[in-house]
Design goal:
Elements (H helix, E strand, L loop, with lengths): L5 E5 L4 H12 L3 E6 L6 H6 L2 E4 L5 H8 L4 E4 L11 H22 L4 E5 L25 H20 L2 E5 L14 H6 L1
Parallel strand pairs: 1-2, 1-4, 2-3, 4-5, 5-6
């Protein structure tokens, strides 16, 4: 990576996004992030990160943040297991977000995406869960469905748009250094 290249991390106030930003900056990589609430920018700016207010469900907000970016870490997503309206709040949010991220990445000529999903996307009826087992066929959980279908959409769009994409499917984000701790972090710590 050259010194004038910019890496963008969506979801900079989340546990993974925040720690990824710290790692990239420690490697002297120029980093930009998107956050939904601009009032949460101080910790990120103190690290030397350029901050844009944007939401993955809003293409216009993404467009400004994505301009000039060479490498995109698509980390932002809705991580909820329950919601009053799960189809809209979880499923639609993650699918629309994936579509928007890839559409604007194509428009802004971003050629490299690391797309972070979840092990929930994988078929775990045969353990250990592995990509060769295929995708989760259990359609009872909106979060699992959103990860399953978002992954497949990301693969389809990466091929259609000719964007080099790597999917990462972690099982949990654990660690004490975050702007805010997720439900799984609170359980583990």
């Amino acid at each position: 990576m050259t010194s004038n290249e910019i890496s963008l991390v969506t979801g900079g106030t989340g546990h993974l996004g925040f720690n990824l930003i710290k790692l990239l900056i420690a490697k002297n990589i120029r980093v930009r992030t998107t956050i939904r609430n601009i009032k949460s920018r101080k910790k990120l700016e103190d690290l030397g990160c350029e901050v844009f207010e944007a939401d993955i469900t809003d293409k216009e907000s993404l467009r400004k943040a994505f301009r000039g970016v060479s490498h995109l870490y698509a980390v932002a997503a809705n991580f909820k297991m329950w919601a009053k309206n799960p189809k809209e709040e979880i499923y639609d949010n993650n699918l629309v977000g994936t579509q928007n991220v890839f559409d604007i990445a194509k428009e802004c000529e971003i050629q490299n995406i690391v797309y972070v999903s979840s092990v929930a996307a994988l078929d775990f009826t045969a353990l250990p869960a592995h990509a060769r087992n295929g995708y989760n066929k259990d359609r009872r959980n909106w979060y699992y469905n959103s990860k399953n279908d978002s992954d497949q959409l990301a693969i389809k769009l990466s091929e259609l748009y000719n964007i080099r994409t790597v999917l990462v499917l972690p099982s949990a984000m654990i660690g004490s250094e975050a702007q805010s701790l997720s439900y799984s972090n609170k359980l583990a710590l």
